[in-house]
Write a structure and sequence with these properties.
The complex is a heterodimer. By secondary structure, chain A is α+β, with helices and mostly antiparallel strands. Chain A contains four helices and four strands. Chain A is rod-shaped, with a radius of gyration of 53 Å. Chain A starts with 5 loop residues before the first helix and ends in an 8-residue tail after the last strand. By secondary structure, chain B is α+β, with helices and mostly antiparallel strands. Chain B folds into two domains: 2-32; 38-169, no CATH class. Chain B has one helix spanning 2-30, and strands spanning 43-54, 61-62, 82-94, 99-102, 108-116, 122-129, 135-144, 150-157, 160-169. In chain B, strands 2-3-1-9-8 form a five-stranded mixed sheet, with no helix packed on it. In chain B, strands 4-5-6-7 form a four-stranded antiparallel sheet, with no helix packed on it. In chain B, a hairpin with a 5-residue loop joins strand 5 and strand 6. The radius of gyration of chain B is 28 Å and the shape is globular. The chains are: A alpha+beta, B alpha+beta.
């Protein structure tokens, strides 16, 4: 028996895999008829294939669907459980924040820390007017605040100025009072 | 696992209960009156002084009837060196009820006590209308503490101006 060349080995392998037809298949069959070595090679391919199939083949009575479901369903249950635990945690965190906010609001209210008009500083930004040097009309409208007196609004058709006047030696307890000076266009002046 | 879940559920309920108790307590706290406003009745008296300010030769003078008003020696009042008291009057005010006063120039001063603030100050509105139908001062709104004078000045009158001093009294 002569040794098989490379082309013949490949042909036997292709035949074993069922890849040959027609003349190629007939040629390999003729080779197998006349070559014990070729038949042994073919038989070895079959033995390898059987071994592989037996190695990966599921055992008798193996249920693929049952096995897959057995692995999938517990995971789904775990995920559902995790979601529920997550929701529980969110509820706990939300309730905690709510309780803290309520406690802070109660504390602030009971301790009177909320700002009130009384708590506001009495000294507010003031518009300091340049003193009127003569009898000329005062400047444009300006709102002024003073200790104890605050001009909220002035509405007049003519020019108006608001001054604060210190009265350190006077009747004002806080040392200043407010003057609303309105320009009078009507006759009757000096 | 079940024990852990039950314990967490119990903790959540405990926190929720505490929060609900606190939230329920807040409106009660907020419902408390912030400041005792009863100490500041919605009544007051506006003491008016109508002054005539003129510029006269010499050092000028301040009517002794005016009393101690050092403001008159300071700007902008120092633009005039002579002050004479024309009238002095107390206007009893009630919240929301305007009171009128006819001045020497026949204009009508209207004063209204708008409110008394929680710190005892008076929100006062004033307007000065002309009998001819015109308006000299449409509206002036002031918040003033008791005994703290404020002034409205500038009306032309007999060679000078009128100065109206307001002092709110309880």
């Amino acid at each position: 028996m002569s040794a098989l060349n490379e082309e013949q080995v490949l042909d036997v392998m292709a035949y074993a895999d069922g890849e040959l037809a027609g003349d190629d298949e007939e040629r390999v069959k003729a080779l197998l008829d006349g070559s014990a070595e070729a038949r042994e090679l073919l038989a070895s391919f079959g033995a390898i294939g059987d071994g592989v199939r037996s190695a990966v083949a599921p055992p008798e009575g193996f249920d693929v669907v049952a096995t897959v479901m057995a692995r999938v369903v517990p995971n789904e249950l775990d995920r559902a459980r995790l979601k529920r635990v997550g929701r529980t945690r969110m509820v706990v965190v939300g309730a905690s924040l709510l309780a803290v906010a309520a406690a802070v609001a109660l504390y602030i209210n009971q301790n009177g820390d909320a700002p009130t008009a009384k708590d506001e500083p009495q000294v507010k930004p003031q518009v300091v007017q340049v003193p009127v040097p003569s009898e000329t009309a005062p400047g444009p409208l300006a709102l002024s605040t003073a200790h104890g007196v605050e001009v909220d609004s002035v509405d007049t058709a003519t020019q108006v100025s608001v001054f604060y006047v210190p009265s350190s030696e006077g009747t004002s307890e806080n040392g200043q009072s407010v003057v609303v000076w309105i320009d009078d266009p009507s006759p009757g002046g000096k | 696992m079940a024990f852990v879940l039950h314990r967490r559920r119990f903790g959540a309920l405990l926190v929720l209960s505490a929060g609900a108790l606190l939230v329920g307590a807040v409106p009660d706290a907020l419902a408390q009156p912030p400041v005792d406003t009863q100490t500041a009745p919605a009544k007051a008296t506006a003491e008016l002084m109508v002054l005539h300010a003129t510029q006269t030769p010499g050092p000028g003078s301040i009517d002794p009837q005016i009393g101690n008003l050092p403001q008159l020696k300071k700007p902008p009042f120092s633009a005039y060196n002579t002050y004479k008291l024309l009238d002095k009057k107390g206007l009893p005010l009630e919240k929301g009820k305007p009171v009128t006063y006819t001045m020497v120039n026949h204009r009508v001063l209207q004063v209204t006590l708008q409110d008394v603030t929680t710190d005892g100050r008076y929100k006062v509105a004033a307007a000065i209308n002309d009998p001819s139908g015109g308006t000299f001062l449409k509206l002036l709104e002031v918040t003033a503490a008791a005994n703290e004078p404020f002034f409205v000045a500038g009306q032309s009158y007999e060679g000078g101006i009128l100065v109206i001093g307001f002092t709110m009294k309880p």
